[in-house]
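Lab manual, section 2.4: Encoding a predicted structure.

Procedure: take the sequence of the chain (383 residues), apply the prediction step described in section 2.3, and record the output as structure tokens. A sample record is shown.
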Amino acid sequence: MIRLRAIQNKTRKLFEGMNDIQYRLQYHHDLSPAGWYLSHGIFIENYWLHEVIQGDNQFTEDKSLFLARNCPVPQRGPRLPELKATVETILEQQDNNDLLLMEKAPPLSDHPLFKDEYIENFIIQHYARHYESICMVLNQIALKKHYKDKKDHPYTPQVPLKSLALIKNITQIKKGTYPVGGELPFSYDNELPAHEIQLDDFFIANTPVTNAQYLLFIENRGYSSKEFWSESGWQWREKNNIQHPEHWSRDNNEQWYGINNLGPFDLNANDSVYGISHFEASAFARWAGARLPHEHEWETAARLELIKNTTNVWEWCENTLYPYDGFKDFPYEESSLECFDNKHYVLKGASVFTRHEIKRASFRNHYLAHQRHIFAGLRLVFD
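Recorded output:
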């Protein structure tokens, strides 16, 4: 109960100081409005605790807005209720749900979804995932504001970012059999079942690629050298005129700086680069004479505690999301199936915005190859 209340409070706190326009506006084509994530969270909480477990749909009868498949993203913002009223309604419903969970007794507590507090953990992790989605929206709000105000309020970094050579600070993982996957009640269905895999020898970088190392890729014309890019990646780069990580910008003296939810800031040379797509990560790896890790290589290295800084940025892997042998969709059909499409690439680790509830080696984040708003970077593997 304490964990659920904490993530509920943390999520609502993100809306302090937000106006109604920011709450309902769509700032990125791959993101819903921030307010939709807020209301979607309580909708899903009510759906499981009331409609599924108790057969009571008083809070979820209208599924036209807050079930993602029923409402196209551009239509979500205009349909949202007013922010202040939404927060008040959500707080009231969350208080009632918290009491329900604290006081549950048979026959309610006999429902199989309450076994080992599975549904509580499911709801907590759902909030955690959309907490980060809201942080992505806040980052996009800051980006739009900065570019709007940049001419009148320019930013000059106090410590200009300088490129650094790529040094092979790597660790060897020996050929062998290793465990991967998660366990109930904390894991999603796509993390199950836990099983063993075979790996050949490989060398993995101890840390993710840094800002300074990524700048060298830019300076070495990595964005204009077609040989480093896949065909689809090059077409995407050309079509969208991609020249640098999404949250990077340059001042009048061509010095790089970053923009986050708090505004412009100096890029630290040793911080992990983020704001790049799978296309960019793959191109960097080819330029570096390396490759991206398979998710099993990353998970094995993390479980053995042989790599560092695993919660700085989400780290792109070379493989797409796929079902493990023995996969069973749970707690509902199609919970992961739509992303087993050979298009969603796995990301491992966590970003600085990721809640601890989903920070685990087995967690399989996944996004499309072009998406770069997700606080994602990369780590290199050498054969």
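Check your result against the sample. The domain at 170-382 is CATH 3.90.1580.10 (paralog of FGE (formylglycine-generating enzyme)).
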